[in-house]
Automatic annotation (TrEMBL):
<keyword id="KW-0378">Hydrolase</keyword>
<comment type="function">
    <text>Catalyzes the hydrolysis of glutamine to glutamate and ammonia as part of the biosynthesis of pyridoxal 5'-phosphate. The resulting ammonia molecule is channeled to the active site of PdxS.</text>
</comment>
<keyword id="KW-0315">Glutamine amidotransferase</keyword>
<feature type="binding site">
    <location>
        <begin position="136"/>
        <end position="137"/>
    </location>
    <ligand>
        <name>L-glutamine</name>
    </ligand>
</feature>
<dbReference type="GO" id="GO:0036381">
    <property type="term" value="F:pyridoxal 5'-phosphate synthase (glutamine hydrolysing) activity"/>
</dbReference>
<comment type="similarity">
    <text>Belongs to the glutaminase PdxT/SNO family.</text>
</comment>
<dbReference type="GO" id="GO:0006543">
    <property type="term" value="P:L-glutamine catabolic process"/>
</dbReference>
<dbReference type="InterPro" id="IPR021196">
    <property type="entry name" value="PdxT/SNO_CS"/>
</dbReference>
<keyword id="KW-0456">Lyase</keyword>
<dbReference type="InterPro" id="IPR002161">
    <property type="entry name" value="PdxT/SNO"/>
</dbReference>
<keyword id="KW-0663">Pyridoxal phosphate</keyword>
<dbReference type="GO" id="GO:0004359">
    <property type="term" value="F:glutaminase activity"/>
</dbReference>
<dbReference type="InterPro" id="IPR029062">
    <property type="entry name" value="Class_I_gatase-like"/>
</dbReference>
<feature type="active site" description="Nucleophile">
    <location>
        <position position="79"/>
    </location>
</feature>
<comment type="subunit">
    <text>In the presence of PdxS, forms a dodecamer of heterodimers. Only shows activity in the heterodimer.</text>
</comment>
<dbReference type="GO" id="GO:0008614">
    <property type="term" value="P:pyridoxine metabolic process"/>
</dbReference>
<feature type="binding site">
    <location>
        <position position="108"/>
    </location>
    <ligand>
        <name>L-glutamine</name>
    </ligand>
</feature>
């Protein structure tokens, strides 16, 4: 069985756990470096990226998590998770740091405040039909490095999905909609073994 960690410092953890469990994956909550041991893949949920940053650094998790992803642990990130992985952010909170493992520039809160949240459907590379997508204080990807593939855009051209190696990230929340196609597609691509599993737990 595939064992998938869900970063559980804050945010929409339960929705991802239930989507993954519904697809038959074993899930594990990740808060401390030792929680990374034995994972096949990891999900970074939505929430508040500056809080992820503060807590991950306080728990000593930021460095080991960045190393695991750099070493090839497959990752799925949504909304704040995307921001937390990004190499560059616009509109960062004071002193906010990121893991910097995804070579994109993201603009935080690019679609406005919580009140401007909306649902739409988006096309995603690899899926033949659009998926429902919830945008909640969502970021927009405004720049991509050479190794980054754009997998989803809104109709106005704004980038809301990217992939770089084993990292898949969306600006929206697929886990809020009850449609598990993006989790399924990611899980299928994430199954496998890699060097991150040899990394000893701290
Ligand atoms: N705006 C939030 C942030 O900067 C992200 C919102 C979300 O994850 N729904 O982290």
């Amino acid at each position: 069985m595939v064992r998938v960690g869900v970063l559980a410092l804050q945010g929409g953890v339960a929705e991802h756990v239930s989507a993954l469990a519904g697809l038959g994956a074993e899930t594990a909550l990740v808060r401390r470096p030792a929680d990374l041991a034995g994972l096949d893949a990891i999900v970074l949920p939505g929430g508040e990226s500056s809080v992820f940053d503060r807590l991950a650094r306080a728990f000593g998790l930021a460095g080991p998590l960045a190393s695991a992803i750099t070493d090839g642990m497959p990752a799925l990130a949504t909304c704040a998770g995307l921001i937390y992985l990004a190499a560059r952010i616009e509109g960062s909170a004071r002193g906010q740091q990121t893991l910097g493992v995804l070579d994109v520039t993201v603009r935080r809160n690019a679609f406005g405040t919580q009140l401007d949240s909306f649902e739409t459907s988006v096309r995603v590379a690899g899926l033949d039909a659009p998926v429902p997508a919830t945008f909640i204080r969502a970021p927009e990807v405004v720049g991509t490095g050479p190794g980054v593939e754009v997998t989803s855009r809104l109709e106005d051209g704004r980038i809301v999905g990217v992939r770089q190696g084993a990292v898949t990230a969306y600006a929206f929340h697929p886990e809020e909609t009850g449609d598990d196609r993006l989790h399924r597609a990611w899980l299928e691509s994430a199954v496998g073994r890699g060097p991150w599993q040899e990394r000893p737990a701290c």
